[in-house]
Amino acid sequence: MRTITEAAAAIRTRSISSLELTQQCLRLIEKSEPKLNAFLTVTAEHALAQAKTADEELARGVDRGPLHGVPVSLKDLFRTKGIKTTAGSLLYKDYVPDFDCAVTEKLNAAGAVMIGKTGLHELAYGVTSNNPHFGPVRNPWNTESVPGGSSGGAGASIASGTSFLAMGSDTGGSIRIPAAFCGTVGLKPTFGLVSRYGTFALGSSLDHMGPLTASVRDAAIGLTILQGADARDDFSVSRPAENYIPPQHATIKGLRIGVPANFYTDRIAPAVMAQFRKTVQLAAGLGAQVEVVTVPDIAALNAIGRVILLSEASALYEKLSAQREKFGADVLALIDQGRLLPATDYVNAQRLRRIFVNKFLELFQTIDVLLTPTAPTGAPKIGQALVTIDGTEEDTRLAATRLVRGINVLGFPALSIPTGLDEGGMPLSLQIVGRPFAEATILNAGAALEDAIQFPGLVQTQ
Amino acid sequence: MASIAMKNWKQIALANGLDIPVADLDKITPSLDGLEATFRPLTAQLNEASESSLLIRLPGSPQ
After folding, report:
1. B63 and A231 in contact by Cβ < 8 A?
2. How many CB atoms are located within 10 Å of the residue A17 CB?
3. Which residues of A fall within a CB distance of 8 Å from B50?
4. Cβ-Cβ contacts under 8 Å for A349 (sequence gap 6 or more)
């Protein structure tokens, strides 16, 4: 059993109880944690109590929907009342919130069983989840490799089957990168669709909350539960609630798929590009209208994103930055960089952002979705500072974020799905970008491709 | 293409009274220079009518 859909069905047919399923996950965590370090806190007692309640409710005929009684995990930057929330930082290593964030509230209301808090890159500010304070999170496909980040524990948890939905946050790719490196699905919803209230911020105008799951339909189940306006989040958007779950036989016949002729084809590892082309051919074979398009300047968009993120993150942590010994070297370097940028650069980056959003809205008048690889390489090794693509060395962080960061600047929705394995047996992936609030379209496209690809899914930790 | 004048990040840190050790400044200079080289030319496309993408929401405004 690997999906929410399967777990929900099994719980309702009484072939397994929520308590038994939770105990299974806890046993799996106990077995895999020495290798993976995916969790900062395992909330066994809390989870078992929630599972018992879920079973009792179902016995009384109270059904809270598809997540009722299903084990989930939260990246350790989602505040949980009475449960430690560290943000992967020494600054908050003993912090126990006295309230739940909006996402925790939603999951509790849906009857989900919170099994633990997953590890992350320090303060969600990086892509490796090689945390200097809590140890590296390891990739279940190869424990010498990073799981990606910053939601690395979430990716590792889904890939190893210890939770059915793992909440992540994505400021410059932090849901989609671990999804890509761990062979899971990762959904970054449109900015404002899921409340940020009560999460640790990094870049307030770039932070998105979303699920990592084992299937596209599970991500859709998650979003259907997580969506909704929240007056406590100034960027939250009020829209009619949608059921995002794709039909059983999703189709992309007639869907206008844009395939970039520029940027997303440069400096991509050959295995990644070969698999991407194969998936595009598959989409065409399923009846999609594939159109080659020229995308606006993504290098410029990434630079705009970096100025915004460096400024917003450094503004958040400036008052704490004198405690230099409490930060890892890579995060401290980013905070220092942000402190050196002038305010005019930040404002001008936000002005440029508006221009680029309009350029992309224009592009999306001719296409329904844009397909790109999610990451230019498979997962790098732990501690690997540089990746080499086509003979050119590139900083690991900049390479991993190159194809995804710009979409945070736009705020458009994006879905990462696994598409296959490279010659080393590591996952390869595809990013599906849609126009604002077109989650139903990208999830439907993702489900159709997923059904055709039949990715192997869960992995026994190597 | 016109060349971009690089900033002296050490002097900027000093002038702003930032407590960043020189060795740490040396490490981040290449990254800042690279960002400057890409970002600075983009600002040429801004004009008086270019508004920020961030807007304030006042109480009572629709979400």
Report:
1. yes
2. 18
3. 351-352, 354-355
4. A304, A307, A308, A311, B39
Largest CA distance in chain B: 50
Residues in B touching A357 (Cβ below 8 Å): 53
- pTM of the predicted structure, to 2 decimals: 0.97
Q: Is A75 a catalytic residue?
A: yes
Q: Which two tokens stand for residue A227?
A: 């969506």
What is the ipTM metric for this complex? 0.94
Q: Is B17 on the interface with A (CB under 8 A)?
A: no
Asked if the Cβ–Cβ distance from B35 to A306 is below 8 Å, we say yes
Helical ranges in A110-199 per DSSP H: 152-160, 176-182
Instruction: Fill in the amino acid letter for A371.
Output: L
Collapsed DSSP state (helix, strand, coil) of residue A74: strand
Respond yes or no on whether the N-terminal peptide bond of residue B50 is cis (omega within 30° of 0): no
- A231, A303, A321 member nearest B39 (Cβ): A303
Please, what is the angle between helix A102-109 and helix A216-226, to 10°?
110
User: What does the longest C-alpha to C-alpha distance in chain A come to?
Assistant: 63
Classify strands A135-136 and A386-389 as parallel, antiparallel or unpaired: unpaired
pLDDT digits (tens, 9 = 90+) for A40-71: 999 999 999 999 999 999 999 999 999 999 99
Helix axis angle, A439-453 to A216-226, nearest 10°: 160
The Cβ of residue A33 has, within 10 Å, a number of other Cβ atoms equal to: 16
> Does residue A278 carry a catalytic annotation?
no
Per the CB < 8 A criterion, the answer to whether A258 and A366 are in contact is yes
Residue burial A405-444, b: 16+ Cβ < 10 Å; e: rest: bbbbbbbbbbbbbbbbbbeeebbbbbbbbbbbbbbbbbbb
> Which of A234, A322, A351 has its CB closest to that of B19?
A322
- CA-to-CA distance for B21 and B23, rounded, in angstroms? 5
Does residue A150 contact residue A169 with C-beta atoms inside 8 Å?
A: yes
Give the Å distances, CA to CA, from A249 to A252, A325, A417, A447: 10, 54, 17, 8
pLDDT tens for each residue of B20-63: 999 999 999 999 999 999 999 999 999 999 999 987 777 777 66
DSSP secondary structure string for all residues of A432-460: EEESTT-HHHHHHHHHHHHHHH-------
